[in-house]
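Chapter summary example.
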Amino acid sequence: MKLQPDKIDTLAVTGYAKDWIAISGERHSESQMINSKGERVAFAVQSWDALKWEDFEPLLQWAQKGIELLVFGTGEKQRFLPPQWMVKLNAAGLGVESMNTPAACRTFNILAGEGRAVAAVLMIEHND
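The structure predicted for these 128 residues follows.
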């Protein structure tokens, strides 16, 4: 019995390494923000310490379009957003799960493949 579709009908993470992420076969060396409705935005943050609340503006717009869950890939190690940012994201209707970026890539694919209204921030850190 087949339980999963052969191909999901949205963006999918098709590969990743420490310094790149492939989304639907297209390789990116910068952090990305994607959602299960097929939207993708470059996430111009190159390190955890450089994050600003303003970087999350697309997520608030996506929440208005029905995205309900954010899978936040925090780079090589798991980190957590400041509590005041979590309150704002939750108030916009977004549940937030933080994990390292490889785990976020896999989790996004599973949830998007199930038809969930999910977004992912996939950070690639450039600590030169």
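To summarize the output: The domain at 28-122 is CATH 3.40.1230.10 (Hypothetical Protein Mth938; Chain: A,).
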